[in-house]
Every structure is written in structure tokens, then in C-alpha cells.
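quick q for whoever's on today - can somebody do inverse folding on this one?? i tried earlier but teh output was garbage lol. C-alpha cells:
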């Protein structure tokens, strides 16, 4: 009887424990289910984000950034730019001619007389007499310089070089009587002149190329804001050599003012490599090669003494 009661009590307790465990497990399962559902939702969200990112990554490969022009648009823009450049050149040439007309006195009132057959015929005899006496035409220099400056802005090479020489105080063909300080308000004339000469060199003027090379070598005409730079000087001398090589003139002759024969350019480069400095590393091997090449070039130009001098300098670099 006691055994039966003990068994039923144990069964009742076991049943109670099982029931509580079941409840706890059901509660745990519900929490685990909610966590599993949340985790699956996060996984799906991450997967969707990755798919979306991969999709846009592929789309970007075929997309074009904003502001990027198509080939046809680039071609049209290039043609328009060339057309505008041509128009600027024409406009600049007109202003250059106007500056020249001012210098010639075309806009200065002249003494006139009326003939029986022709009217408004200007007498230039008096004007020629004044020129012979050393008296120049009193034209409007400010107006002439204004037209010259417009021509320079339009990219006319002659105007650029003329204004550069004005800034340096050098002689120039156009507007010879114009004093730069009287018509040009600029606190750094030398620096501005060098920038103009460098622009002319970029446009392919050989004398300007050599001028810029010499300026970077010696430090003259650079203005207060720049210092000598031998690497730049070497680069400009090499550009001058390429101009001589590609031109139809003799490389060892001086065809016009400012241009130097080939052996002189090679010698200047050799000197800089032999000494080193101003940003250029000393290279005696390079100096030897340049001196030797300069000697050969001088020999071709029938400059025997210079050739011997260059050979001697080359031997000193060994």
C-alpha cells in the first residue's frame, strides 16, 4: 500500500516536472523561433543589399560620369575651338595692323590741300621733312598699345614677342617709340615679360625657346619670383635642338636673331652637366658625350678651333 502511494507520488511529481519542462521548452522554443526569424530577416536584408550593390556596380560600368562628353560632342567642341582660334587670330591680326597704322600716322591729322582736279589729297612732303630732321609722328601711343595688347590676348605671336621685349626694355620693331612704363601699368614688368616670352616659346618661336633656356640657366630676366633651374634649361635647350633638327635651315648657322648654332647649344648643356647645380645632378659621362657631339658639330661647321676646344673639355670629364 505504501509502495503504491510512493509510486503514484513519484509519477505525479514526474508528471509535474515534465509539464514544467515542456512549458519552459515551449517558451524557449518561442524565443528561439523569434530569434531565428529575426536572424533570417537580417540575412535576407544583407543578401538584398549585396545584390543591390552588385547590380549598381555592374550598371556603373556602363554609365558615364556627369559632364563627360561623347566622341561626337568632343569632335564638335574641337571643331568649334579651332574655328574660334581662327577667328581670334584674324581679330588679333586686325588689332596688330591698327597698332601699326597708329605708328605710321594713319590716324593723325595731316595738312591737306585741295587741287583743282582732286580733293582731300594729303601732302606728305612736310611729314617726310620732319622725319629726316629726326622728329617722329606724334601719334596716340596709348591707343596703339591698346591694340597691341588686344592682339597679344588673341594669341598673335608678333604681338606677344613685341610686348615681351617692351617689358625687358629691349629694342623691338613695332612701336619703337613707345616707352613701356608710360603705357603699361605693371609692378613686375620683368616677370611679365618672361611669361610672355615663355608663351612665345610654347608657340614654337625658336628665338624665344633659346631665350627661355638661357634665362633658366643664368637666372636673368626671370623676374623676382623665379630662380634658375638647370633641369628646365636643359629641357628647353633640347627643344631648341629639336627645332633645329626639324627645320630646313642649316643646324650650325644663325638664320636670324636669337637663334644659336647647334654646337653652342650642346656646349651649354655640357657645361651644366659638368658642374651640376640648381636642381641638376652632376653627370660627367653626359657632359663628355655632349662635348664630343658639340665638337663634331663644330667640325661640320668648319669651326676647327672650337672643335679642338670641345674635345679638350670632353677629355677633362673622363
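ok took a stab at it. sequence:
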Amino acid at each position: 500500500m505504501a509502495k503504491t502511494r510512493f509510486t503514484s507520488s513519484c509519477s505525479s511529481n514526474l508528471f509535474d516536472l515534465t509539464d514544467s519542462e515542456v512549458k519552459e521548452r515551449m517558451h524557449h522554443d518561442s524565443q528561439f523561433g523569434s530569434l531565428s526569424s529575426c536572424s533570417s530577416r537580417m540575412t535576407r536584408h544583407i543578401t538584398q543589399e549585396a545584390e543591390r550593390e552588385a547590380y549598381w556596380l555592374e550598371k556603373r560600368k556602363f554609365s558615364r560620369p556627369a559632364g563627360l562628353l561623347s566622341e561626337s560632342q568632343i569632335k564638335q567642341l574641337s571643331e568649334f575651338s579651332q574655328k574660334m582660334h581662327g577667328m581670334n587670330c584674324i581679330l588679333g591680326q586686325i588689332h596688330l595692323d591698327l597698332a601699326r597704322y597708329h605708328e605710321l600716322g594713319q590716324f593723325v591729322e595731316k595738312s591737306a590741300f585741295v587741287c583743282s582736279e582732286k580733293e582731300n589729297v594729303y601732302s606728305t612732303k612736310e611729314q617726310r621733312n620732319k622725319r629726316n630732321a629726326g622728329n617722329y609722328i606724334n601719334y596716340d601711343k596709348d591707343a596703339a598699345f591698346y591694340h597691341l595688347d588686344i592682339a597679344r590676348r588673341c594669341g598673335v605671336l608678333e604681338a606677344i614677342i613685341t610686348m615681351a621685349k617692351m617689358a625687358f626694355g629691349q629694342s623691338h620693331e613695332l612701336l619703337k617709340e613707345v616707352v613701356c612704363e608710360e603705357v603699361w601699368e605693371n609692378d613686375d614688368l620683368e616677370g611679365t615679360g618672361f611669361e610672355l616670352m615663355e608663351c612665345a616659346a610654347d608657340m614654337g618661336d625658336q628665338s624665344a625657346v633659346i631665350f627661355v633656356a638661357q634665362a633658366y640657366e643664368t637666372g636673368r630676366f626671370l623676374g623676382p619670383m623665379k630662380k634658375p633651374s638647370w633641369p628646365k634649361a636643359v629641357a628647353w635647350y633640347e627643344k631648341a635642338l629639336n627645332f633645329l633638327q626639324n627645320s630646313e635651315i642649316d643646324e650650325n648657322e644663325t638664320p636670324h636673331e636669337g637663334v644659336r648654332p647647334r654646337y653652342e647649344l650642346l656646349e651649354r648643356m655640357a657645361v651644366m652637366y659638368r658642374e651640376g647645380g640648381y636642381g641638376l645632378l652632376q653627370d660627367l659621362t653626359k657632359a663628355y658625350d655632349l662635348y664630343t657631339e658639340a665638337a663634331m658639330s663644330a667640325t661640320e661647321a668648319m669651326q676647327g678651333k672650337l672643335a679642338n676646344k670641345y674635345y679638350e673639355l670632353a677629355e677633362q670629364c673622363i
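fwiw Confidence is low (pLDDT under 50) at residues 1-17, 112-134. also The CA atoms of residues 127 and 137 lie 8 Å apart. so keep that in mind when u check it
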